[in-house]
Amino acid sequence: MTRGEAALSSLGIPESEWNSRSAIVDRADVGPRGFFQRVPEAKAGKNRVHLDIRVAPEMSGDERMAALESEAARLAKGGATRRWRVEPDGAMENGFIVMADPEGNEFCLD
């Protein structure tokens, strides 16, 4: 099993759906993990793929959201735009921030 397949497996994604999602992982486990997934809704702009950038692994609650806010602020200085924030709900959602690159392509800080 590759590291990407291991990441998909650890997220509980059935092997039958691995062709609809992909993960990029740092071989040294130092850098962030990139996660690509197909989404059912149509996109009216340039995005052809949805990116989730993991910046707060193993964090939860206020600590997680503070790490996401810090990364959102750093990216905004480089030209990204903050779109919206989804709060953790304690059950199914860990919380994330939707951003857009300078061309308007959306990605999530996870």
Characterise this structure.
With 110 residues, the protein is α+β, with helices and mostly antiparallel strands. The protein has a domain at 56-110. Helix content is 23%, strand content 26%. It has helices spanning 3-10, 61-77, and strands at 21-24, 33-37, 50-54, 81-86, 96-100, 106-109. The chain has a six-stranded mixed β-sheet. The longest helix has 17 residues, at 61-77. The radius of gyration is 14 Å and the shape is globular.
Key structural traits:
2 helices
Summarize the helices and strands and which ones pair or pack.
Layout lengths: L2 H8 L10 E4 L8 E5 L12 E5 L6 H17 L3 E6 L9 E5 L5 E4 L1
Parallel strand pairs: 3-6
Antiparallel strand pairs: 1-2, 2-3, 4-5, 5-6
First-last Cα distance? 24 Å
**Biggest sheet: strands, sense, closure?**
6 strands, mixed
- Bin the strand percentage: 25-35%
Alpha plus pi helix count:
2
What are the secondary-structure elements, in order, as H or E? HEEEHEEE
The rounded Rg comes to 14 Å
Look at the structure and give the mean pLDDT. Answer: 83
Low-confidence stretches: none
Q: What's the total number of strands?
A: 6
Shape: globular
Q: What is the oligomer described by this structure?
A: single chain
User: Which strand order spans the largest sheet, edge to edge or round the barrel?
Assistant: 1-2-3-6-5-4
Structural class, from helix and strand content? alpha+beta
- Portion of residues in helices? 10-25%
